[in-house]
Amino acid sequence: MKSLTHIIVHCSDSEWGSAREIRKWHLERGWRDIGYHIVILNEQILPSLSIPALNGSIELGRPFDGDMFIADNEVGAHALGYNDRSIGICAIAKNKWKPAQELSLIHVVRDLQRIFKIKKENVLGHCETESGLAQGKTCPNLDMTEIRNYWLL
């Protein structure tokens, strides 16, 4: 069990979805559960179902108990080398986040920083991790430097 030190931000690389849908995708890949702890919705829940009021809503994914440690059953599957010491946040987005999603991200990350004493330097986009860099990732398709410098604690 390791101390929680990081938040890793992702995008789903899909234009629609939910925590339930991502859980289904990840279970189909043979994973134990959804890889992310928190999912930020856009309005497109299914390919044929758009609910604008859900844009920016937050859903819980993989359970975690709120203490400073990541137990074995809480370890995510979202960023190799960080899974056992981070919370994974994923927005339903392909190349561009909706403004409501960005606002929700800032609010939830600030709350998590306050609760878990996470420094803004330890809030990373998946593309900033070693595995993300090695894979040439652009995820989360946000300017994480700007978010850290102007929006985080």
Task: Give the SSE layout.
Blueprint: E1 2-3, E2 6-11, H1 19-28, E3 38-40, E4 44-46, E5 49-50, E6 58-60, E7 69-70, E8 86-91, H2 99-116, E9 123-125, H3 130-134, H4 144-150
Parallel strand pairs: 2-8, 2-9, 3-8
Antiparallel strand pairs: 1-7, 3-6, 4-5
CATH architecture: 3-Layer(aba) Sandwich
Indicate the low-confidence ranges by residue numbers.
none
Could you state the CATH homologous superfamily?
Peptidoglycan recognition protein-like
The chain-level structural class is alpha/beta
Separation of termini?
Answer: 26 Å
The side-by-side strand order for the widest beta sheet comes to 6-3-8-2-9
Largest sheet: 5 strands, mixed
Describe the structure.
The chain has 153 residues and is an alpha/beta fold. It has one domain (2-150): Peptidoglycan recognition protein-like (Lysozyme-like, 3-Layer(aba) Sandwich). The protein contains four helices and nine strands, in the order ββαββββββαβαα. The protein has helices spanning 19-28, 99-116, 130-134, 144-150, and strands at residues 2-3, 6-11, 38-40, 44-46, 49-50, 58-60, 69-70, 86-91, 123-125. The strands form three sheets. A five-stranded mixed sheet has the order 6-3-8-2-9, covered by helices on one side. The longest helix is centred in the C-terminal third of the chain and has 18 residues, at 99-116. It is globular, with a radius of gyration of 14 Å. It starts with a strand and ends with a helix. Residues 1-130 form the Peptidoglycan recognition protein family domain. It comes from viral metagenome. InterPro entries: Amidase/PGRP_sf, Amidase_domain, PGRP_domain_met/bac.
